[in-house]
Amino acid sequence: MYTTLISATQLQALLASEQPVMVFDCSFELMTAGAGDLQYQQAHIAGAVRADLDRHLSSQDTSTAASGGRHPLPARETFAAWLSSIGFTNTMQAVVYDRQGANYCGRLWWLLKWVGHEDVALLDGGWQAWQDAGGATQGGTGTPTHAGTFVLTPARTALIATATLAKQLGQSTQTIIDARSTPRFRGEVEPLDPVAGHIPGALNRPFNLNLDPDGKFKPAAQLRAEFETLLAGRAPATVVNHCGSGVSAVPNIIAMEIAGLGRSALYAGSWSEWCSDPARPTAQG
Length: 285
Fold this sequence. Notes:
Elements: E1 5-6, H1 8-16, E2 21-25, H2 35-42, E3 44-45, E4 49-50, H3 76-85, E5 93-97, H4 105-114, E6 120-123, H5 126-132, E7 137-138, H6 162-167, E8 175-178, H7 182-186, E9 203-204, H8 220-231, E10 239-242, H9 250-258, E11 265-266, H10 270-274
């Protein structure tokens, strides 16, 4: 089974093998409501199920959310219920993709690991790679799904709460990596959140640095060298990843795993949750 990346040709072979697999289209545009749905309706991988960041991959009820921030995590039970409603089961291989440089599909990759499902892979190169490989596509609202049963099992990835992050701030047991663009990290611009800057002591690794110009992840050795340079002797096991709202941090988690540096933790509330309390320290520059 595939647990990190899958190529377009590998996915074609997997679909042809008739093994149990579900493909998810996670296309989304942060600044344009409904754009991901429109992209899906125009064309998507044949048989792919729609997974929208706002509707399916974030909590609609803050009272039951598993994190804060602009895109709160749904409770594990809520997410498992959605998986069951679309017919996804524990025996299936999941494949996730988008059209935005792996920015959004990583969220579903992480969520599936979090509810205990290891067999989920990101389509390397996304929609463009599928088109380049001549993969089958279709338009419309998608194929009707039938209910199934997805059973929660222990989490396979670590979620860090704000209180835990704050308690370990500045300690050698915690290394924070911020996946936002460098101008946002420095506090030079802030288009989304009320406060500009970053969590004190955080390192900056914009998530798009993990990709080659063709939109595919860089080779493992190159990723490892880049992360080791960034960490400068800090242990990979101490890393906590975040971004603006816990979404674009995931490509860094995947890249570290590809690089053989283990599966690092996620602070899902991210900068949007951290800066919501004026009592929490912030830094610029």
